[in-house]
Amino acid sequence: MPCCGSLTRAPIGLCGRRTSWPRLGEPWSTASTSAPNGLTTAFAFGYNDLIAAMNNHDKDRHVLAAAVRERAEVIVTTNLKHFPDDALKPYQIKALHPDDFLLDQLDLYEEATKAVILGMVDAYIDPPFTPHSLLDALGEQVPHFAAKARRLFPSGSPFGLGVLLPFDQ
Q1: VapC50 C-terminal domain location, by residue (predicted)?
Q2: Dihedrals φ, ψ of 120, to 5°?
Q3: How far is the C-alpha of 93 from the C-alpha of 60, rounded, in Å?
Q4: What are residue 75's phi and psi, to 5 degrees?
Q5: Which of 42, 71, 111, 162 gives 20 to 30 Å between its CA and that of 9?
């Protein structure tokens, strides 16, 4: 089942930790924090010495330390309270909710974001998705992004990977 984590990874790289995102329609509390199934601090090395110097919530200091070590600009998280501005400002890092991050991606990289959505639609057979049904499902986690992304897919238009392939016309 697809999730908004697939979208947050696609247009640009980011540094953050949500080791697995919940399946569509499931609450965020179902996400795992132990299985390496997404962007994790496992991709950052040499940050352990920085953890003690971080001033954010103690359970997420490793996330900020990894972001600092990797010179990240953004931490994408639903847990914004663990990343207050005063803890991030010295490192010129921002914390964004996935909805806000994806809205930024849509504004900055509209075609790439559209291609990722179409790729997700084409990747899922059971259950099958259309762009609109995928955005309906994503709307539970990232409602503002899902609403704004709908304009990329006018009703009645054919969509899928075949639209992107010139020999398939």
Answers
A1: 98-151
A2: -65, -40
A3: 14
A4: -110, 120
A5: 162
